[in-house]
Amino acid sequence: MNTDSHRSDALPLPGVHMQHAHFSVLRLRPGDDLLAALDSWVAEHQVQAGWVAGVVGSLSTAALRFAGQPDATLLQDAFEIIALSGTLGRDGAHLHLSVADAQGVMRGGHVMPGCIVRTTCELVLGELPGVAFCRVPCPLSGYDELQPVLLNPLHENPR
Fold first, then answer.
1. Rounded to whole angstroms, how far apart are CA atoms 1 and 100?
2. Integer Cα distance of 116 and 128 in angstroms
3. Do the beta carbons of residue 58 and residue 105 sit within 8 Å?
4. CA angle, 146 as apex, 44 and 82 as ends, to 5°?
5. What contacts 35, CB < 8 A, 6 or more positions away?
6. d(CA 34, CA 158)
7. What's the gap between Cα 63 and its chain centre?
8. Cα dihedral 68→84→78→101 (10° resolution)
9. How far apart are CA 73 and CA 52, in angstroms?
10. Taking the model in full, what pTM does it have?
11. DSSP state of 143
12. Contact call for residues 76 and 61 (beta carbons, < 8 A)
């Protein structure tokens, strides 16, 4: 039996605890590009391991790459953001977005450039100090995939 297909790429991060996470709040305004704004936040704050902790808002344009498709599909309507999840880092973001139109019909996929804020986009963003979210080529998926790297171990004081 080939056990490699069941191998986990989980990286134990000894000494890194969620109580050391930092959180920021970012509000995007009408006309802002969601992905460009997140990339700017990562660069400005030198974030190496971030994630979207929460979001509420709306888009006028959603640029999504649907599963198994090579290119983005551009959707234009009044959309409510239902969910946004994923990782942020210097090697780029990996984000998935679900939106609902005025009839409540949901669409979702991989976030691409061109997701434009309609009224507001209020984001709570997390950062894990001492860790970098790197992207490395994966021969199995054909994409650059997450490789967390421990940078500066945080040590707890013994009690």
1. 44
2. 27
3. no
4. 70
5. 93, 95, 111, 112, 113, 114, 115
6. 43
7. 15
8. 60
9. 22
10. 0.84
11. S
12. yes
